[in-house]
Amino acid sequence: MMSASNAFTVDLEDWYHGLTSTNRQPHLWPRLESRVVANTEHLLDFLAVHNVQATFFVLGEVAEQYPDLIRRVVAAGHEIGVHGYAHEDIRRLTPERFAAKLDRTLEVLASLVSQPIIGHRAPYFSIERSTLWALDILAERGFVYDSSVFPTRNMLYGYPDAPRWPHRVQTRICTLVEFPASTVQVAGLTFPVVGGFYARAMPGRLTRWAVRRLNSEGVPAIAYVHPWELDTGQRYSRVTPREQVTHYHGRHGLQAKLHQLFQDFEFGPLYDLLDLVDAPVHCMGCSIS
C-alpha cells in the first residue's frame, strides 16, 4: 500500500468545453464568451494562498489561444499534463485521430513548458474497457501516468470494473501508472467523491470524511476541479435540465469547501505520488479486478 498523501488536479478548460450541449458544437465556441483566463487566475491565487501545488491537465486549444496563461501556471510551480486538444470524448475518436490530437497538444505545450509532460487525463474520464488502446499510444509518447479512469458508472462515463486505487497497467511497451478518480464504498456500493459535481453537491463534511476514509485505507484522494466551477457569474441560458444541475449546482459553496479541505489535508501534484505506487500490474485487455 502507499502512504496517505493526496493529489489536487485541475482540468484546465473553458466553461463551454465541459458543457455537453456546447461541447459538440465547436462552431459556436468563437461566439461564446471565454472566461478561462480570469477563472484560472482566480484559482491560481486561491491555491497560492493555501500553498497548494497541483497538476493542471491542459487543453491544447486553450494553450494555443492563451499561451501566457499556461506560462503563469508553470511559473506558479504547478505540474502540466495533457487534457486532449479540444475536449473530445475518446470513445468518439479513432486511435489515429486520438494520436494526432495528442501530438498537436504536445507540440503546442513544448514551447511553454520546460519540464517533461508525463501525465494525461482524457475528457469525460473516457478511458474504459473499449478505449484501453489509448494507453498504448500514451506509452509510445513517453507518458508515465494517466488519470482517466472513473471506477464507477454515471450517465456519461465510467469503468466500474477498474481498480479503485492507483495501480499499474501493462501496455505494449511498458507499464503506466493509473490514478483513478476517487471513490468510496459503502454497503457494497461505490460512490464518487472529491471532484467536480460531486464535490459541489456533497456537504463539505462528507467530502472530508471520504478523504479520511481513503487515507485510513492507505489510498490517496485524487481531487479534481475545473476553473469554471468557481465562476459564480457565468450563466448560459440554453442548457438542459440535467446540465442545469451538473454544470451549475453548488458553485457558490465550492470555494469554502476547498478552503476547509486544504486546512484539514495535504495536497500536491500527481507526480509526487508516483514513487508511492506499489501495486500489481494489470494486463491490457484482461478483466481488471
Give a verbal description of the structure.
The chain is built from eleven helices and twelve strands. It is α/β, with parallel strands linked by helices. The strands form three sheets. Strands 1, 2, 3, 10 and 11 form a five-stranded parallel sheet that branches. Strands 4-5-7-6-12 form a five-stranded mixed sheet, with helices on one face. Strands 8-9 form a two-stranded antiparallel sheet. The protein has one domain: Glycoside hydrolase/deacetylase (TIM Barrel, Alpha-Beta Barrel), CATH 3.20.20. The protein is 35% helix and 15% strand. Helix 7 links the parallel strand 4 and strand 5 (145-146).
Q: Mean pLDDT score, rounded?
A: 93
| Domain unit count | 1
How much of the polypeptide forms β-strand, as a percent range?
5-15%
> What separation lies between the terminal Cα atoms?
16 Å
Which structural category do the helix and sheet elements fall into? alpha/beta
Please state the CA-atom Rg, rounded to the nearest Å: 18 Å
Structure at a glance:
The protein is of the alpha/beta class and 289 residues long. The chain has 11 helices and 12 strands.
